[in-house]
Amino acid sequence: MVDSVPFESLHGVIMQRYRTYLIFGAPGSGKGTQGKSLGTIPRFFHCACGEVFRSIDTRTALGRKFVEYSSRGELVPDEVTVELWRVRIEHCEEAHAFKPDIDHLVLDGIPRNLAQAKIMDDIINVQRVFHLSCPDRSKLIERLRKRAIKENRLDDANETVIRHRLEAYEKESKPMLDFYRPEIVCHIDASQPPVVVFSKIVALVAQDAAAESAVELPG
Ligand code: ADP
Question: Where along the chain do its domains lie?
Fold first, then answer.
């Protein structure tokens, strides 16, 4: 499916918007696990915004900004976040790790609020939003506690910070779902085992791929 609205890259090159799947949900809902899994399939390229932030040298101004906000359980300001993400994606493109003409982009953790969704709308052509829904907050808190130990995540270690992140999700992130057409928003029960969640995501993505290849076939 060719998208007809192009955008200008950071280097002034005119590009087609990236065909994108969004993995969306509260902290601890399993976005990273699902995003990583989808990214192992050929022609899917996974990019997690939290990982992009964690890879920055904390001695730089941006690295310090990330530590400052994330340790309070707050979102990093939108402009710097989207700019950082764009620079990372374009590096991946230059390195030929991400090939936008044949790959689908799988984003987790970005866009994370309405303002980011609006800024990014010129760059990404969202095919579907997978909303990993987990109304049972105690389950999320339990997962985050385990992750704090396993992945040495400071922002997961503190109960007050965790609660603050869950509140920020409800207030700032969740309303972002309304930005996308309801037909492309898929709500999936995130309290199910990862393989069950993944099978639902893959089924929908495979359905899209089959429809695309049917369109590409001659007559
Ligand atoms: P989680 O999904 O558990 O919140 P992430 O690894 O996605 O974990 O994010 C960790 C932290 O990085 C967030 O709490 C936030 O401070 C910052 N962050 C990640 N993505 C964004 C974003 N799109 N906008 C603003 N801040 C972000």
Answer: 12-201
Q: Tell the residue nearest (CA) to atom 9 of ligand 1.
A: 50
pLDDT, one tens digit per residue, over 176-199 is 999 999 999 999 999 999 999 999
- Residue 218's pLDDT is what? 67
pLDDT tens digits for 48-70? 999 999 999 999 999 999 999 99
Helices (H), 6-104: 31-39, 49-54, 61-70, 78-94
Which atom of ligand 1 approaches the CA of 50 most closely? Answer: 6
Find the angle CA(143)-CA(139)-CA(68) to the nearest 5 degrees.
50
Closest residue (by CA) to atom 10 of ligand 1? 50
CATH T-level assignment (fold) for domain 12-201: Rossmann fold (3.40.50)
Extract the tokens encoding 115: 């303002």
